[in-house]
Amino acid sequence: MASVTLRRLSKTYAEGGAGPVLRDLSLDVRDGEFLALLGPSGSGKTTLLKCIAGLEEPSAGEILIGERNVTQLAPAARDVALVFQHYALYPHLTVRANIAFGLEVRRVPAAEVTRRVQETATRLGIATLLDRRPGELSGGERQRVALGRAVVREPQVFLFDEPLSSLDPPLRSELRGEVLALHATLGATMIYVTQDQREAMTMGQRIAVLHQGQLRQVGTPAEVYERPADVFVARFVGNPGMNVLKGRGRGTEEGSGMVDLGGWSVAVALEHYEGEIHVGVRPEHVTLGAANPETGSLEVRAVEPLGPETLVYLDARGQTLVARVHGIPNLRRGDRVGVTLDRSRLHLFDAAGERLG
Ligand code: ADP
Ligand code: MG
């Protein structure tokens, strides 16, 4: 097994093109870790995996697998398996031949190929499908075969590129469990790319958040959720994401401050500050009550009852504020409600969106 170390990695596809796709990216994935790489479409996730696998050459920087600098090595010499979003199985080959392919290319003796294919197929619950072709399999079965092709090689590092995104929700959740079980039994280092913050939160031992080719934050799910490094991470993680309201902040010497949100304001812990600021608050830390003429009120824009909880969208004087409340409140569009933001749960970000404190 092995760690994966990225040192100041950059990637630009074409001179004079759209600019760098990866920017000065450094990351340490620990030996045996399951790291979720989370980012929106176009943020550079696939490019990063391809650089690690050796399918793309970085424009600058280094890649180490364990102690080995693999930056200049061919893909086959890196001992890395990449599982794609689309299964990329050979349609004319049986499941058995698809799984065996990578071993045969590496000239593994036939008896060992047979043994390893059988063992892998059993582990993934596809032993009865070995003589079928990909066209005779369901989506979930095909993705198991794709996993099997990676597993059978016994690589040091697994790279997963949104492997479950084309499956429907129940199957997705089943295969998520399967991937985590593989991680537990194989103990291999795994980097799992997803655009789905929920998947990243539930699967990752740590989450690395990528945006516009830059790593914005690397941390445990709790760290990323509870202390987002910037406004992007705050909004991207959580469903719905954190409310981030723009305002003007003023902080005194004693650390008591005020943010003017345009017609209403919130008291915050803020020292020596004067200027544009962002106030973040999770929907579950917004409490609704009766409209109170003294503390003011906000208008309800939309109500989304989800059963055990309801999302209430409020017009915070031109900005949207979402509250997550228990059960199904008796509220309608146009109602006015009193709003309390849990002061101990406020997050402050500067004008550029970087976390303060
Ligand atoms: P993600 O996987 O996060 O959606 P990608 O790594 O696929 O992101 O793409 C990141 C950016 O790089 C996108 O703007 C994409 O258009 C561009 N890109 C990806 N592959 C190539 C390529 N082979 N040539 C030029 N640009 C590319
Ligand atoms: Mg991609």
Q: How would you describe this structure in keywords?
A:
binds magnesium ion; 8 helices; elongated; OB fold (Dihydrolipoamide Acetyltransferase, E2P); 34% strand; five-stranded antiparallel β-sheet; binds adenosine-5'-diphosphate; 357 residues
Quick overview:
This protein has eight helices and 20 strands.
Class of secondary structure makeup: alpha+beta
- Computed over alpha carbons, the radius of gyration is 25 Å
Number of domains: 2
Between the first and last Cα atoms, what is the distance in angstroms? 37 Å
Unreliable runs, pLDDT <50, ≥5 residues? Answer: none
In DSSP terms (H or I, runs of 4 or more residues), the helix count works out at 8
Strand line-up in the sheet with most strands: 6-7-8-3-9-10
- So, the CATH homologous superfamily of the largest domain? P-loop containing nucleotide triphosphate hydrolases
Describe this structure in words.
- The protein has 357 residues and is α+β, with helices and mostly antiparallel strands.
- It has two domains: 232 residues, 3-Layer(aba) Sandwich (Rossmann fold), CATH 3.40.50.300; 107 residues, Nucleic acid-binding proteins (OB fold (Dihydrolipoamide Acetyltransferase, E2P)).
- The chain contains eight helices and 20 strands.
- Strands 6-7-8-3-9-10 form a six-stranded mixed sheet, with helices on both faces. A five-stranded antiparallel sheet has the order 13-12-11-14-20. It has a five-stranded antiparallel sheet with strand order 15-19-16-17-18, with no helix packed on it.
- Strand 17 and strand 18 form a beta hairpin.
- Bound molecules: adenosine-5'-diphosphate and magnesium ion (MG).
- Magnesium ion binds next to helix 1.
